[in-house]
């Protein structure tokens, strides 16, 4: 296969992987698929999920449990057709440069898995099966009530009878379900089997680094409730002059924000449980964190330092556009990939933030005090912002953001300190100065 | 042998621990201050323990010739790199020390129905080793003790976990389970059979005999199935993993992630510097290669390819068959100089990948300053830097430690890579990657030297890698020492390839023009010979 580049000369992964989900309904397959997709896309690895259920729904929007009975020939045929349509679309997507395609379906029989494997590998794509197996009836029922009873399949139906119908649907799957390699004849497959939310894990025949990375990421996911708090540093002396980068101290108003921050944090946490505070190594974030309670553990990360503007460090936008007019324009055209001369691009920042995201996924209750570009990248990870959007997200000064991951998506709350600050936001293609973000561009 | 203490005294000393009885892995011989061995430690805590994990015993499980020692050594190297205080305790050392030189354990030592005398001996040895583990965890802030022994029975493992729990130590078992005959024989051939017992014997024959001998000595081995224990079962050298996680978290995930990328397949890593850039280059400007730099790229490429061809011929002669070359992959940073240094290889059709993590160390305010200027502008920083050149960071600059953290994903990918690999990077990046592969102390990392006229070749061996230096002939001597764009952070010791007199050779005035300080031609590793005495080492 010829090496591919992503348009700016950086070579992309040359393997293509199909992640095939396996497991009975209500085992968190879609949750895993959704998280993995978000993580990979954030790392600029083209990823997409193909949910067979959605294909089936086109044809049979609200089927009852009988539909899923293996003796129901009509249902069986339709479900097969839905799977075939999903796989066909996925292969088309791979042809157009997809790297990790996730096939979200039960794939609960050996025959079905073999069919997927043969179809996909014949196109030169590697397959890794990811099975979620759960025998804990209570966990399953909780998942059904939380997620499934509100699924489009049961729109407008009584939740309790919906849950019951769904339970019956699962029973139909159980009749034919074989866990991967139950009979020892699927030992050649590459697979990850997660049992009872990570109590036991089997990893079989991992072939390359990207696969091991996916496996590692999935192993770090946990379902304990938690939040992540994000704040920029208080207004800095260079912010006042409209200069980017640098390592300046806080302005008077910035210091005021630092003093107000403990109160904001307390209000948003809602209890006195301590947070762990991560700052960058630059003066302005460390100064912003200095008034937080002493029992909060504080760590400095070089990886949280602001995007390095290279030769433009310490300049105003006006100076940059005067000295490097072409660069200024090039940055507007593709801000995500634009790398300052001798500095970094947003893409580079994302790559250096990767270990931070892994740490965040496994941790609970972290407060991050960092810089505009870095917060944008972390925000983009949680909110699944595209590369076109993420570098333009307004992250106002003197505002604390609380992100709470939920089953499908992340909830955002903003806590304003009501301390004035200059704007450090600039619209795309606009004049070379900071301005107020347009109202519809708000977070 | 290697110590003045007699074995008996050693074994009965209150805190006996092997220092360097076999030299097998270079890990036991580190200074007690393991802080120096932690290039990529993310943060530090008062107790010195990381990842919100307490004290952990990783207990190895598996018969001899299952690659346990290789796993222990690699894992310890990786954990220490992450800053986790890790130490290996080989039960075999305690047994050898207890039975003394030339002594043998009784025939029934490993039998489930061993005689009372053998059971007593076994318990005495075990106790000694466990006491050392506790002492290290309790009094030296150790975090992960790797306990290397056979641990063949479920009941033994259960009581071990209980015993550790009593001392507030969590236990993670790591079993290396092999049922693939080929892997078993390969392991046996590689490590064990250079013993005189098998002298002159056909290697396959010797391997079979050795394996048979193990089976006679240790007749009962139960693979792990204890559902109440935390364990990772590594099957057939990483083909599959089974992970039973009762209460463990991040650290064990991390270990599994590392192990999934570890492989024993032999392949070579080459390191070279990038060519030189034009005069006006700086960290920020990212200048392209100068003409000399381009000429360097061509010569380096020629030397490397010639060397690989030679190696191939040697191999072919030795085996009597035509051996195909392993494919070669090239990694560069995203800096122009490294990319362009890889161009001649790219034109020849080699795969070149750019890795943004491999950019050189950021010099911050020191950029373009002479050492004198740095000293006069930032005298306090220089003072602090000299105290700890590894962790200290000049204003806006990166420390070597920052660089190591940034390079961590590269390290794992390096472990995973199956092809031969050429890394073209800045000297600072080579220092950190080299230090991982060769296990250098953080005190030495900023001083490691990579003159431009050498290709470093690192060949993995069972217990420790071996580094060789290949000379690139015909280079302009001007480009060999630190290039003009190099960072002038004052580090103790002369920069790579700097002129310096060699003591005792001749007076400086008579020195030829280019005498450079260089590390030895080859860092030879004798791991294989040194473990030959472990042939009778059955736990």
Automatic annotation (TrEMBL), chain A:
<dbReference type="GO" id="GO:0005829">
    <property type="term" value="C:cytosol"/>
</dbReference>
<dbReference type="InterPro" id="IPR003094">
    <property type="entry name" value="6Pfruct_kin"/>
</dbReference>
<dbReference type="GO" id="GO:0005524">
    <property type="term" value="F:ATP binding"/>
</dbReference>
<dbReference type="InterPro" id="IPR027417">
    <property type="entry name" value="P-loop_NTPase"/>
</dbReference>
<dbReference type="InterPro" id="IPR013079">
    <property type="entry name" value="6Phosfructo_kin"/>
</dbReference>
<keyword id="KW-0378">Hydrolase</keyword>
<dbReference type="InterPro" id="IPR001345">
    <property type="entry name" value="PG/BPGM_mutase_AS"/>
</dbReference>
<protein>
    <recommendedName>
        <fullName>fructose-2,6-bisphosphate 2-phosphatase</fullName>
        <ecNumber>3.1.3.46</ecNumber>
    </recommendedName>
</protein>
<comment type="similarity">
    <text>In the C-terminal section; belongs to the phosphoglycerate mutase family.</text>
</comment>
<dbReference type="Pfam" id="PF01591">
    <property type="entry name" value="6PF2K"/>
</dbReference>
<dbReference type="GO" id="GO:0004331">
    <property type="term" value="F:fructose-2,6-bisphosphate 2-phosphatase activity"/>
</dbReference>
<dbReference type="GO" id="GO:0006003">
    <property type="term" value="P:fructose 2,6-bisphosphate metabolic process"/>
</dbReference>
<keyword id="KW-0067">ATP-binding</keyword>
<feature type="domain" description="6-phosphofructo-2-kinase">
    <location>
        <begin position="10"/>
        <end position="225"/>
    </location>
</feature>
<dbReference type="InterPro" id="IPR013078">
    <property type="entry name" value="His_Pase_superF_clade-1"/>
</dbReference>
<dbReference type="InterPro" id="IPR029033">
    <property type="entry name" value="His_PPase_superfam"/>
</dbReference>
<dbReference type="Pfam" id="PF00300">
    <property type="entry name" value="His_Phos_1"/>
</dbReference>
<keyword id="KW-0547">Nucleotide-binding</keyword>
<dbReference type="GO" id="GO:0003873">
    <property type="term" value="F:6-phosphofructo-2-kinase activity"/>
</dbReference>
<dbReference type="GO" id="GO:0006000">
    <property type="term" value="P:fructose metabolic process"/>
</dbReference>
TrEMBL record, chain B:
<protein>
    <submittedName>
        <fullName>6-phosphofructo-2-kinase-domain-containing protein</fullName>
    </submittedName>
</protein>
<dbReference type="GO" id="GO:0006000">
    <property type="term" value="P:fructose metabolic process"/>
</dbReference>
<dbReference type="GO" id="GO:0005524">
    <property type="term" value="F:ATP binding"/>
</dbReference>
<dbReference type="GO" id="GO:0006003">
    <property type="term" value="P:fructose 2,6-bisphosphate metabolic process"/>
</dbReference>
<dbReference type="GO" id="GO:0005829">
    <property type="term" value="C:cytosol"/>
</dbReference>
<dbReference type="GO" id="GO:0003873">
    <property type="term" value="F:6-phosphofructo-2-kinase activity"/>
</dbReference>
<dbReference type="InterPro" id="IPR013078">
    <property type="entry name" value="His_Pase_superF_clade-1"/>
</dbReference>
<dbReference type="InterPro" id="IPR029033">
    <property type="entry name" value="His_PPase_superfam"/>
</dbReference>
<dbReference type="InterPro" id="IPR027417">
    <property type="entry name" value="P-loop_NTPase"/>
</dbReference>
<keyword id="KW-0547">Nucleotide-binding</keyword>
<dbReference type="Pfam" id="PF00300">
    <property type="entry name" value="His_Phos_1"/>
</dbReference>
<dbReference type="InterPro" id="IPR013079">
    <property type="entry name" value="6Phosfructo_kin"/>
</dbReference>
<dbReference type="GO" id="GO:0004331">
    <property type="term" value="F:fructose-2,6-bisphosphate 2-phosphatase activity"/>
</dbReference>
<dbReference type="InterPro" id="IPR003094">
    <property type="entry name" value="6Pfruct_kin"/>
</dbReference>
<keyword id="KW-0067">ATP-binding</keyword>
<dbReference type="Pfam" id="PF01591">
    <property type="entry name" value="6PF2K"/>
</dbReference>
<feature type="domain" description="6-phosphofructo-2-kinase">
    <location>
        <begin position="45"/>
        <end position="265"/>
    </location>
</feature>
């Amino acid at each position: 296969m010829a090496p591919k580049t992503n348009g700016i000369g950086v070579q992309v992964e040359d393997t293509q992987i199909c992640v095939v989900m396996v497991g009975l309904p209500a085992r968190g397959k879609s949750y895993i698929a959704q998280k993995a997709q978000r993580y990979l896309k954030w790392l600029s690895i083209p990823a997409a999920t193909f949910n067979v259920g959605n294909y089936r729904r086109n044809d049979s929007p609200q089927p009852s449990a009988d539909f899923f009975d293996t003796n129901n020939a009509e249902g069986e045929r339709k479900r097969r057709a839905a799977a075939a349509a999903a796989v066909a679309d996925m292969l088309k997507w791979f042809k157009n440069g997809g790297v990790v395609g996730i096939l979200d379906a039960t794939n609960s029989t050996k025959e079905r898995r073999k069919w997927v494997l043969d179809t996909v590998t014949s196109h030169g794509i590697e397959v890794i099966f990811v099975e979620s197996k759960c025998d804990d009836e209570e966990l399953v029922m909780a998942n059904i009530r939380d997620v499934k009873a509100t699924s489009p399949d049961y729109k407008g139906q009584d939740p309790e009878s919906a849950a019951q119908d769904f339970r019956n649907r699962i029973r139909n799957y159980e009749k034919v379900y074989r866990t991967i390699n139950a009979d020892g004849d699927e030992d050649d497959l590459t697979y990850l089997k997660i049992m009872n939310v990570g109590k036991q894990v089997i990893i079989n025949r991992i072939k390359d680094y990207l696969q091991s990375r996916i496996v590692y990421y999935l192993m770090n996911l946990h379902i304990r409730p938690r939040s992540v708090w994000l704040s920029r540093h208080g207004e800095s002396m260079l912010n006042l002059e409209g200069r980017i980068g640098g390592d300046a101290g806080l302005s008077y108003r910035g210091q005021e924000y630092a003093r107000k921050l403990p109160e904001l944090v307390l209000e948003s946490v809602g209890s006195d449980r301590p947070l762990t505070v991560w700052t960058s190594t630059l003066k302005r974030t460390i100064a912003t964190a200095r008034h937080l309670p002493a029992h909060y553990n504080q760590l400095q990360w070089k990886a949280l330092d602001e995007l390095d503007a290279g030769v433009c460090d310490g300049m105003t936008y006006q100076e940059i556009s005067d000295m490097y007019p072409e660069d200024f324009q090039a940055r507007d055209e593709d801000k995500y990939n634009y790398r300052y001369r001798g500095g970094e691009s947003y893409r580079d920042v994302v790559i250096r933030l990767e270990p931070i995201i892994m740490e965040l996924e496994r941790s609970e209750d972290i407060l991050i005090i960092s810089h505009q570009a870095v917060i944008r990248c972390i925000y983009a990870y949680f909110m699944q912002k595209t590369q076109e959007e993420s570098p333009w997200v307004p992250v106002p000064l003197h505002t604390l953001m609380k992100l709470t991951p939920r089953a499908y998506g992340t909830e955002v709350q903003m806590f304003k300190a009501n301390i004035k600050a200059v704007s450090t936001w600039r619209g795309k293609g606009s004049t070379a100065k900071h301005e107020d973000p347009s109202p519809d561009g708000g977070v | 042998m290697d110590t003045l203490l007699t074995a008996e005294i050693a074994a009965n000393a209150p805190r006996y621990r092997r220092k360097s009885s076999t030299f097998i892995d270079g890990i036991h011989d580190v200074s007690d201050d393991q802080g120096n061995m932690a290039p990529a430690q993310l943060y530090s805590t008062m107790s010195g323990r990381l990842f919100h994990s307490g004290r952990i015993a990783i207990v190895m499980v598996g018969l001899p010739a299952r690659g346990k020692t290789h796993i222990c050594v690699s894992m310890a190297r990786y954990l220490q790199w992450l800053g986790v205080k890790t130490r290996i305790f080989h039960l075999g050392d305690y047994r050898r020390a207890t039975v003394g030189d030339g002594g043998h354990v009784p025939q029934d030592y490993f039998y489930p129905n061993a005689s009372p005398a053998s059971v007593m001996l076994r318990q005495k040895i075990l106790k000694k080793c466990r006491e050392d583990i506790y002492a290290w965890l309790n009094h030296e802030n150790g975090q992960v003790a790797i306990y290397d022994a056979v641990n063949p029975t479920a009941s033994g493992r259960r009581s071990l976990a209980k015993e550790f729990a009593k001392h507030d130590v969590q236990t993670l078992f790591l079993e290396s389970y092999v049922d693939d005959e080929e892997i078993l024989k390969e392991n046996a051939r590689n490590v064990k059979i250079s013993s005189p017992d098998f002298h002159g014997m056909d290697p396959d024959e010797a391997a079979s005999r050795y394996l048979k001998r193990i089976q006679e000595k240790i007749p009962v081995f139960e693979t792990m199935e204890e559902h109440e224990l935390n364990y990772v079962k590594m099957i057939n050298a990483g083909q599959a993993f089974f992970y039973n996680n009762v209460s463990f978290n991040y650290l064990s995930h991390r270990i599994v992630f590392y192990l999934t990328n570890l492989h024993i397949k032999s392949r070579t890593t080459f390191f070279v510097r990038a060519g030189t850039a034009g005069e006006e280059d700086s960290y920020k400007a990212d200048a392209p290669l100068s003409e000399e730099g381009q000429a360097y790229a061509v010569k380096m490429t020629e030397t490397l390819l010639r060397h690989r061809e030679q190696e191939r011929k040697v191999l072919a002669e030795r085996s009597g068959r035509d051996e195909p070359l392993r494919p070669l992959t090239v990694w560069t940073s995203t800096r122009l100089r490294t990319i362009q240094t890889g161009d001649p290889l790219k034109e020849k059709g080699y795969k070149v990948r750019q890795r943004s993590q491999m950019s050189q160390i950021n010099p911050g305010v020191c950029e373009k300053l002479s050492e004198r200027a740095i000293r006069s502008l930032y005298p306090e920083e220089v003072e602090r830097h000299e105290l700890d050149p590894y962790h200290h960071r000049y204003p806006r600059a990166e420390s070597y430690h920052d660089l190591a953290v940034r390079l961590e994903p590269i390290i794992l990918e390096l472990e995973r890579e199956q092809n031969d690999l050429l890394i073209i990077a800045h000297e600072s990046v080579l220092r950190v990657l080299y230090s991982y592969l060769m296990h250098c102390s953080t005190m030495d990392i900023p001083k490691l030297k990579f003159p431009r006229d050498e290709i470093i070749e690192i060949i993995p061996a069972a217990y420790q890698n071996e580094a060789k230096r290949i000379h690139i002939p015909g280079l302009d001597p001007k480009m060999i020492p630190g290039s003009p764009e190099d960072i002038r952070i004052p580090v103790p010791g002369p920069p790579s390839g700097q002129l310096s007199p060699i003591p005792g050779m001749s007076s400086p005035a008579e020195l030829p023009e280019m005498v450079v300080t260089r590390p030895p031609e080859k860092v030879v590793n004798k791991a294989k010979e040194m473990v030959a005495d472990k042939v009778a080492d059955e736990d």
